[in-house]
Structure formats: structure tokens, C-alpha cells
Amino acid sequence: MSSSFHEDSDNDQESLLEFERLESTLPPALKRSASSLLEAIQTNSTAPLHSPSESHDAKIRAPVPQHARDVPIYQPIPGRNTGTATPNLKNRSHRQTLISKLSKSENGREASPIPLPKPKFNESIYKPAMNSKQSSTGVLWATERAGEYGYDSEHVGDWANLGQGAPEHGDTIPGSFPRPKTISVPDASREYAPTAGIKQLREAVAHYYNETYRANKPSKYTYKNVCIVPGGRAGLTRIASIISDCYLSFFLPDYTAYAEMLSLFKNFSPIPVPLKEADNYEMHLKMIKEELTRGVSALLTSNPRNPTGHCMKPDQLHALHNMCREKCLLIMDEFYSHYYYDDGCTGSSISSAEYVEDVNLDPVLILNGLTKAFRLPGWRICWVLGPEDYINALSSAGSFLDGGSNAPFQFAAIDFLQPLKVRQEMKALQLHFKMKRDYIIGRLSRMGFHFDEKNTPNSTFYLWLNLSHLPGKLSNCLGFFHECLHEKVIVVPGFFFLINPQNLSHLEEVIWYNYVRISYGPELHHLELGMDGIERILRRFGCLSYDTH
């Protein structure tokens, strides 16, 4: 008995240290959030049972943390419950008690030591003027941590990377045209391409949008309405550089890379607008109207939305354009517009281009590219569509920001954008990815996760998975992520989608600590490995709703 007791203690202590290493790699703002989550776990595990009249949300709501810059540790915020303050991490005993709620090696998994994460920079070397405190976020952080457990992105092996933000890129989709193995390099492509892109590709993009979304409209896009950019982030960065003296609203949760774009530029003021869990994080038009009323003159959103996998209905999108026309710049990230399943997987897609009245008067910028729809993320060929004046400004910005897109790949992309060819390709894409969506929802449903019309994604290849019904550490995105690593599965913790570009006070109150984002972008056999891994975790914790054997 004594030997067994010491063995369990050693395992628990090693797992505690392992989790501390994991938590220590978080960016500072998320580290504060993670600490409050740990306290939530402790509070929920020691609190008396809730009465039946109390809502489910009351059981899982994280405590309201204090903002580190505004309130010293241990000084309660007036009017708030003193038990909800961020714990003092300098108290090692208290810290270990909290972390052990997430790191305990319970339910059959022995602790397994991991190498200490290497510092991002060598602190012993002086680096003049360098920002050495920059932290990794989102997908990069998740894959870095997986790398410490043996994951190698070039030799994936039996790992399931359900955290990836890219679709499968091989010739694996029935009915899809083969990805090019070689491309020609015409003499013209040896020269720098214009920072707005080569004219032929700009014309092909304009023609595709006119034929697909504007066939019956008098106002048509021309090549002057198109700017080719080296990737979606480059497009967003160019846009951020040309707007100024305005309030820009964006909605949470959303694409994690927005945080860097919104924090680097000081020529506008970003305003985060948290969406409600009860609404499944839907962006209501009433909320947008309120933003316009308080003087916002730019709105940024992904549609379809990352990470929730939902998009606005056509009538909602139409109403949004009517509300914002002549009042507010709409920046519409439409990279997942072709991963759209509401129309029977016919190859149709949804785009703001359909609701623009005058292409040169309506202040609407649309981002898309080959990255997702054509499953060619490595090509870095994307575009921004909008009024000529905005496009001219974006072209100028490219001359000092990124220098423009790869010329040979631009020439190769022209043929892809034939409207009929795109429609056929998108039909194959939608049928395949809807099959994968239905597969993981089917597997997770049998494990005890609940899905209905509200939380079933109708677009993208992401699932915003609610963990709140799971026991102990599994109800927390960091604890779930930690257990997944031991099963060679990668997911993205939900609180990375808390975009807080200026560390605005008390924004940490909005924490999706009971969500992870799961990607069904990988090939089916990797999804099978991932679902098998999650199933093993739930079985060990005794919360699997069925026995697969």
C-alpha cells in the first residue's frame, strides 16, 4: 500500500510539473486568464451542489478576474465578490493546488515527463531594440507544445492535427481537379509583378465575381477593383495600413491573427464586441446597428466565421449592407465562403459581392484567395476586392509592406478562376467536407456531446466544441488540450480566440474556457485517429456515453 501511495504521489507531482511547464508558455494575457480558470475549477469542485433552479451556465461560468494593470493583487474590486479575484501566482502552494486540478494524472494515464520548453529567445544574448517578449498564439502555440511531445509537422505519423487551419491539399477529393505538380515560368514572370498583381489575374478575379454574384447588376467589377496580395494576413495588413482616424469594431470570437493586425497599427482604434454564448455567438444586426450608432466607421468580420463554423444567412447579409452603405467600411473576410453547406452542396457560395450596389461607391472590401477554396495555402495567392480608390491605396501600401505576390503562381492561377470550373470544384469540395463534418459530429455525438441546428456548423471546416458537460480538467480547454497531447491529438484552446489587441481593461471577463476548436481540414484517416484519441480520454475519465467494444 505504501509503495502504491508513493507511486501515485510521484505521478501526480510529475504531472503537476508538466502542466506548469505547459501553462508557463502561454502569452501573458492568457496566462492571467488561465489562472482564473484554475480557480474556477477549484471553486466548482469544492462548492456545494447547485439547486435545480440554478441555470447550467451558473455552474460553469468563470470568475471575473481583476485586470493586472488596474487592480493590485488581493485588493477586491468594489462591488464584486472578493472570492473571484485572480489568484496570487507568487504563492507557490496556492498555485500548485490550483494547477493540480488540471494536471493530475488521473483515470489510468501515468504521468510522462516532457522536456522543458525551450525559450523563444536566448535570454543570455543581448539583442538591442528587439521585442523578445513576443509570444506565440493560437495554432502556432498549439503545434509548438505538441512538438515538445514528439509531433513533427513534416513527418506527422500517427498524430492527428485537429488544430490545423488549412484544408487537406492532396488529390484526395473525388471530382476535384488534380493539384498542379509543375508550373510554367514565362519570361514576364521573372520581373517583379505589380504590387496590385498582374492584370490578367486581376481580370480573371473580377470576371469570376461578376459572373457568379453580379450577373443581373449594372455595376460590374473590373481589374481596377482587384488587388492581388501574398496571403490573407498580408491583405489584412495592407487594409489596416490604409485606414485611419476611425473606430473599428470586430466581433469575438474570431480569427486569432486579427489580434496582431489590430495591435500593430495605431492609426485607428479597435473596439472588441463580445458575442453571447446563449446565441451560439451569432452576430445579430441589432448589435451592428448599436455599433454604428456609437460612431463606428469600420467593421471587420469573417463570414463564414472562424472558429464557430457559421455564416450569415443571405437576408442577414443583405440587411447588413443596407445598414452600412455610405456609413461604414465593411471588411469581409470570406476565405471560407465556398465551404458552404446550406444550399445542398451544389457548388454555390455566399459573398458580400452579391449585395454591393455600386462597386466603386459601396465601401466594401472582400478578402479571399486560393488558400482555402482551391486548397493551395502554400501558393500565397489571395485578393482584395473593393472600390478603385481603396484598391489604389492598397497597391501603394504593398510597395512598402510586402512587395507583392509571387509572379509565376499568379500566371498559373488565371486558369483556375473560370466560373464553371470553380462551380464544379466547389461542389466536390462541399460534398467531401460535409461528409467529414458529419463523420466527426456523428462520432462526438455517440461520445455524449450534444449537437443541434444551432451549434452544427453550416460552413468552414471548424467545429466550436463545448466541453462544459465533461468532468474535472476536461471541462477546461487547457486541461482538455493537455490530455489530447498525451493521445497524439492537437486541438486549439478556445481562449486563443479572445482577441484583445490593446489589453483593454476587463476583457478577460469574456473567456471561452470550456471550448476548443476542432478542424476537420485534415484527411479522413487523421480525423479517425483524432476521434479515437478523444474517445480514449473520455473512457479513462469515465464519461464516455457508450462502450465501443
From TrEMBL:
<feature type="domain" description="Aminotransferase class I/classII large">
    <location>
        <begin position="183"/>
        <end position="501"/>
    </location>
</feature>
<feature type="region of interest" description="Disordered">
    <location>
        <begin position="167"/>
        <end position="188"/>
    </location>
</feature>
<feature type="region of interest" description="Disordered">
    <location>
        <begin position="1"/>
        <end position="21"/>
    </location>
</feature>
<keyword id="KW-0808">Transferase</keyword>
<dbReference type="InterPro" id="IPR015421">
    <property type="entry name" value="PyrdxlP-dep_Trfase_major"/>
</dbReference>
<dbReference type="InterPro" id="IPR050596">
    <property type="entry name" value="AspAT/PAT-like"/>
</dbReference>
<dbReference type="InterPro" id="IPR015424">
    <property type="entry name" value="PyrdxlP-dep_Trfase"/>
</dbReference>
<protein>
    <recommendedName>
        <fullName>Aminotransferase class I/classII large domain-containing protein</fullName>
    </recommendedName>
</protein>
<keyword id="KW-0663">Pyridoxal phosphate</keyword>
<keyword id="KW-0032">Aminotransferase</keyword>
<feature type="region of interest" description="Disordered">
    <location>
        <begin position="70"/>
        <end position="119"/>
    </location>
</feature>
<feature type="compositionally biased region" description="Polar residues">
    <location>
        <begin position="81"/>
        <end position="102"/>
    </location>
</feature>
<feature type="region of interest" description="Disordered">
    <location>
        <begin position="42"/>
        <end position="61"/>
    </location>
</feature>
<dbReference type="InterPro" id="IPR015422">
    <property type="entry name" value="PyrdxlP-dep_Trfase_small"/>
</dbReference>
<dbReference type="InterPro" id="IPR004839">
    <property type="entry name" value="Aminotransferase_I/II_large"/>
</dbReference>
<dbReference type="Pfam" id="PF00155">
    <property type="entry name" value="Aminotran_1_2"/>
</dbReference>
<comment type="similarity">
    <text>Belongs to the class-I pyridoxal-phosphate-dependent aminotransferase family.</text>
</comment>
